[in-house]
Amino acid sequence: MPFDSAPVNRVERLAQGRRAVTVAVALCACCARAAAQEHRTPIDSAAVARFADELFPREMSRRRIPGAVFVFVSSGEIAIARGYGAAQLEPPRPVDPERTRFRLASVSKTITAMAALQLVEAGRVDLHRNIAGYLHGFHLDEPRGAITLHHLLTHTAGFDERLTGMAARSPETIEPLAEYLARSMPPSFTEPGRVISYSNHGFGLVGLIVQEVSGRPFVDYVREQVFEPLGMQRSGALVGAAPDHLATAYDVVDGRHRPLSPEYIQATPAGAFFSTGTDMGRLLIAHLRGGAYRGPSVLRRETMALMHAQHFPQAAGVSGWAYGMWEDARNGQRALLHNGGGKGYRALMYLVPDYDVGFFVAYNLADRHEEGELQEVFITRFRDRFLPARADVAVAATEAAAVEPADGEYVYVRRARTTVESFISIINRVRLSRGKSGALTVVGFSGEPFELRSVAPSVYRRSDGRGTVAFEAGRPDTTPRLLMITDSGFPAVYERVPPLATQRVQLVWLSVMVAVFLYAALWRPLASLWKRRTTGTSSVRWTRWPGAAASAMNLVFLVGFPIAFLGRNEGGFPEFAYGVPAAARALLILPPVTAILAVAALIALVVDARDGQIPRLRPTDLLIVVALLSFTAFAWYWNLLPL
């Protein structure tokens, strides 16, 4: 029987007890925060205004950002609302904090989390119940265990990554949410509740739950239950024609600003909302003031405290995830935030509950700078200026034993494992090593090494000052994990790579195959033609042509496919987000063809030997066949075969 019908009342009592404990914890958090606020020196809004007015124009000029908005809230009021530069360059349109709409990108997830928690608050959704019970007409494979709303809100459901096809070029090509997720939902790679792996599709499911349980289209529900009660009249979702006063996104090409067409996100709940600076100020105040802004509450105070509580740290004593936001707990000053980026724009919301302040930043260029993006730089400088390290801060005590860091190569957990985009993970890796002095050194994919300095058991501070690294012990059936926490607090988890899957082994494997293919496709045919021209004889046999043809095709694929798949990028947004590009799709025909030719080359080698055409087996002929079969295995490993 799937259910034990006898103890229904007992189960209900347990559920009520769990909800009561949750509410009690949330209320304790509220009280603790209120007590902390009494001992904090209020942040001077005038000083923040001077700081912003000096920093934004200077940094925008350095980074060539056309326009930005900055809103700062304090003590339940919008204390600062600034627009800098242009929302549109031609014809000129300045940024207006009241009217200019900016895309929120992944900041949308915080709004989606609020909508879901409304249903939790109403008793219509249980945070810890299998979400399959809420998804009528939508089947979700859960081979590794039941997935709950708690898992989705903390990005611990264990979903694979899938960026290919996540965007549409026009409103007409946006699929209904349930249909898109049914077609594109990635599989799980680990059991739920084990590891943080940021997932757009996971938050798509959160929105689908809201839609299914409420009986309202997700976008309509958010407008009616979140935006309208908070007075966010200029906020919405980009699921149709671009609204008036939407900031134009830009890229810089050949030294000139180029306007970009908007992208439309298929999983609307994960990144499709837009808003103005002052509308977002109202949302920030609701977070800081118990769920309301001069009107009805969208969430009760205890539910908002529950949303803000830490629910999953990947390792002991470090920042983790709340519901729909992550923590930035540098120097003992805890903040909550979510940022986002899309095709030529960036956005950030940042809350410091202990000081009753928060801010929103958005701008219309995907800035790429060696010092980091403007939003990251602003957070760090704001904290240095207005949130100095607490004198009473102490390293959190933990009962867990220190984890001995394991040398080796680590790959980002958030990656594709089952689609053609999986090959991207070959570069998104870091290497951990221990020098002769015993110091730990990490080398990222940028090639810049940095040392780690111990600050607590299993926790290290980067020598470049730009984040923290922690280590998590793997269970007997898992590999060790490395947790890189950026200075904004975002926890990026890396897992140790098996020796045969390391970047070095993969590149050596690939290099040997390329050398053999060059010999088979170019050197040997040209040498044979030269011999025939100079001596009138030729050693070319028909049985060699399958190997030569397959080698040439493999070379074309190895050079052409990465360029075709990754080559085009607008405003930091890859072309493959709209789907596998046409040229890349055409090139994907080659690996199956060369697999067939590899078998043909093997058969030809056997035929030659049996017919006496080869007095003795030539190592080069065998090497070519082995390389061709090896490439087929390589293509299978990286999901480049349609199997």
The appropriate CATH architecture of the largest domain is: 3-Layer(aba) Sandwich
Runs in which pLDDT lies below 50 for 5 or more consecutive residues are 1-27, 34-39, 394-400
How large, in whole angstroms, is the Cα Rg? Answer: 28 Å
Kindly give the count of domains: 3
Q: Gap between N and C termini, in Å?
A: 38 Å
* Average pLDDT, all residues: 88
- Total beta strands: 24
How many individual helices?
16
- Which CATH class of the largest domain applies here? Alpha Beta
Strand order of the largest sheet: 15-16-17-18-19-20-21-22
Please give the share of residues in helix. 25-40%
Shape: globular
What portion of residues belong to β-strands? 15-25%
Quickly give the structural class: alpha+beta
Describe the oligomeric state of these chains in a short phrase.
single chain
Could you give me the name of the CATH homologous superfamily of the largest domain?
DD-peptidase/beta-lactamase superfamily
What does this 3D model show about the protein?
The longest helix is centred in the C-terminal third of the chain and has 33 residues, at 503-535. Strand 13 (345-352) and strand 14 form a beta hairpin. With 643 residues, the protein is of the alpha+beta class. The chain has helices at residues 8-38, 45-63, 108-121, 149-153, 177-184, 200-214, 218-227, 268-271, 277-288, 301-308, 374-386, 503-535, 545-566, 582-587, 590-610, 619-637, and strands at 67-74, 77-88, 93-94, 102-103, 167-168, 236-237, 250-253, 256-259, 264-265, 273-275, 326-328, 335-342, 345-352, 357-363, 408-412, 429-434, 440-443, 449-456, 459-462, 467-472, 481-486, 491-496, 569-570, 573-574. The protein is globular, with a radius of gyration of 28 Å. The chain contains 16 helices and 24 strands. The chain has three domains: 8-386, Beta-lactamase (3-Layer(aba) Sandwich), CATH 3.40.710; 408-497, Lipocalin, CATH 2.40.128; 502-637, no CATH class.
